[in-house]
Amino acid sequence: MKRKLKKxxxxxxxxxxxxxxxxxxxxxxxxxxxxxxxxxxxRNGENSYFDEDFAIKEGNAYFIMTYNIGFxxxxxxxxxxxxxxxxxxxKDEESVLAAVSSMGKxxxxxxxxxxxxQEVDRDGTRTYHVDxxxxxxxxxxxxxYVFAQNYDSPFLFFPPWQPHGANVSGLVTxxxxxxxxxxxxxxxxxxxxxxxxxxxxCYSVIxxxxxxxxxxxxxxxxxxxxxxxxxxxxxxxxxxxxxMEAEYKRGNYVICxxxxxxxxxxxxxxxxxxxxxxxxxxxxxxGFRLAIESVRAPEDIEHNSCRSADEPYVEGETYTVTLxxxxxxDNVAVNYYxxxxxxxxxxxxxxxxxxxxxx
Length: 359
Known about the structure:
Elements: H1 2-29, E1 37-38, E2 42-44, E3 61-68, H2 93-110, E4 114-124, H3 132-136, E5 143-152, E6 167-175, E7 181-186, H4 195-198, E8 202-209, E9 215-222, H5 230-249, E10 253-259, E11 288-290, H6 292-295, E12 306-307, E13 320-321, E14 324-329, E15 332-339, E16 352-358
Parallel strand pairs: 3-4, 9-10
Antiparallel strand pairs: 1-7, 2-5, 3-16, 4-6, 5-6, 7-8, 8-9, 10-14, 11-14, 12-13, 15-16
């Protein structure tokens, strides 16, 4: 009995030391990128769709799309462990390549003037180290683009049956017109141990000159979902609002698109999950509005932009909600708005397409 007890104590001691060493590794490896980080502007092929003297013009109509690509993992049969599902990784490398290529083809076929993408992995355990930006660039030809790293996580050993691993992921913004400047802003996140769930978090902004000399400022946003609180979400929106309001007061045009992780269509839903928070429309600063309310009543838009990932998708049964969309300043008219319906074939989100006019 003494020998057995001694073995048990030794095993437990080893486990405690190993867990302690891992905790030290995770917190020492954790870092956040600095705020106000200037982003490199890249060019993916020639801008063959427009003349060389093409510039954003007041009175012309332009299309912008936002799409959370779910790091190429969320096929219809995928459920995510953080939402109560099973999986942490994509099914296999072939599935990632097929999903991201299909979403790249959607961009190519729709051919919007601007594209905002979220959850684009550059190097991830969960996506078999596929560089998804490089793959997307095979389809999104003729764009200028910027990549804003959201996070570079240490190797995470949860869930135990399929450790999430180490992942570099971020936001990508494409523009047909030349980008005169781009910036990454670091959002407020939890300062407790729950920050390991949310990691780093940011939004990006690109500035595109217009014919009048004003700037079109396009924000790409992905708000916190995990490890956050009402206070953190409020701080994130407050920071975004302050930034957008400053540009608007300078006379510039402002469009913010992305995954807001808030319900943009309804104030409340019966039996809605905890994460489907109604968007606090009353918090919008003067001079701004939700674009979804500009063309028709939100409830008339039947398709939702996101499905719950607690289980594989089943049409008509799985909970859906609109988390993705746009905020626009009053000098931006919304001419067309659509939650595109791809049946969540390639991601747990479907793209949202908007046509706008500057005036």
